[in-house]
Structure formats: C-alpha cells, structure tokens
Amino acid sequence: MKSFDSRINALRKRVDLVDSKIIVLLGKRFATVKRIKTLKKAAGKPETDHKREAAILSRVKAVAARMSIPPAAAEKIFSLTIKESKRLAKK
C-alpha cells in the first residue's frame, strides 16, 4: 500500500496538471476575446455585450450544477474571467 505522502503527492501532481491545462485554456480564451474586440472595433460595435455575458454566466452555472459544482462558485470564477478578458483585451 502506498504511503500517505506518496498518495498526496500523486494527487497534487494531478492538480498541477489540471491547473496547467486551465492556464493554457485561459490563454486561448484571452487571445480569442482580443480578436473579438478587434472585430467589434472595426465594425463600430460596442465593446461590451451584456446579453452575451449574462448568457455565458447562465450556461456555466448550468454546466456547474450538472458537475456537482456550486453554481455560485462557477459564476464568481467566470465573472472574474470575463472581467480579466476585457481588461487584457485593452492592452
């Protein structure tokens, strides 16, 4: 039987791998948002689409609920993700 420390370390490595994948996906999301901003600017469209943001939050809360993740937690995470996506797109 594996020792407690080896089991914890194995699980921590899995968490680290998931964290790395999340960062890669966030980078892709931020880059895509920047492209969307460029297209909106060229078309003279407003930068913020509140209906779209509400739809994103609604969708992620529903997905979270199906995954037994508290929807409020998913909403907080994605609200911050949206905020940071917009901030980074301004650079």
Characterise the protein shown here:
Helix 1 crosses helix 3. The protein has helices at residues 4-43, 50-66, 71-89. The mean pLDDT is 95. It has 91 residues and is mainly alpha-helical. The chain has one domain: Chorismate Mutase Domain, subunit A, CATH 1.20.59.10. Helix content is 84%, strand content 0%. The chain has three helices and no strands. The radius of gyration is 18 Å and the shape is elongated.
Task: Present the secondary structure layout.
Layout: H1 4-43, H2 50-66, H3 71-89
Helix pairs in contact: 1-3, 2-3
- Report low-confidence residues grouped into runs of 5 or more: none
Structural class: mainly alpha
CATH topology tier name: Chorismate Mutase Domain, subunit A
Number of continuous helical runs: 3
Features:
mainly alpha; 84% helix; 91 residues; Chorismate Mutase Domain, subunit A; elongated
Short note summarizing the structure:
The protein is an all-alpha fold and 91 residues long. Helices cover 84% and strands 0% of the residues.
